[in-house]
UniProtKB/TrEMBL annotation:
InterPro entries: Uncharacterised_YwnF_TM. It comes from the Bacteria. This is Uncharacterized protein. Keywords: Membrane, Transmembrane, Transmembrane helix. The chain crosses the membrane at residues 32-54, 60-77.
């Protein structure tokens, strides 16, 4: 995403409104993603160590189960983080499209152009939104 300090105030305001919508989900996704990787790595490392380098695995059944559950929990957290990231993208795209369509300043053809661009490439929605806001500002001047 673009650095906020280099953006004009009218763009910063719009991005701050969007950030207010997605920040709770962003915090959850970050937290889940942050904890999932260490859990998975610890689990895999210890399972590989136990299964391939320790000859007496008979006494380690509980430990193996514990690390397997730990790894599964890490993978579940990773999946949940991915789900939250998709939800963030959906909320962002919906906000951008509704803001473009609500514009009283922009022409209908400009709104159509940017709405189509956002729908075709939702990953670049914020970049298209910034371009739209700049074009809208030019039309307003």
């Amino acid at each position: 995403m673009l650095p906020m300090a280099n953006l004009p105030p009218f763009i910063q305001r719009e991005l701050e409104k969007l950030n207010e919508l997605i920040s709770p989900l962003l915090k959850k996704a970050s937290k889940y993603g942050f904890w999932s990787l260490p859990l998975i790595l610890i689990s895999v490392f210890n399972l590989v160590t136990i299964l391939f380098f320790i000859p007496d695995r008979q006494n380690m059944v509980l430990t193996i189960i514990l690390y397997a559950v730990l790894g599964a929990f890490g993978m579940a957290m990773s999946k949940e983080a991915k789900h939250h990231r998709k939800e963030i993208q959906k909320i962002s795209v919906d906000y951008v499209i509704s803001r473009i369509e609500k514009s009283d300043i922009a022409s209908a053809s400009l709104k159509r152009k940017y709405t189509t661009m956002v729908k075709e490439s939702p990953v670049l929605a914020i970049n298209h939104f910034v371009q739209f806001l700049e074009a809208e500002n030019k039309e307003n001047s």
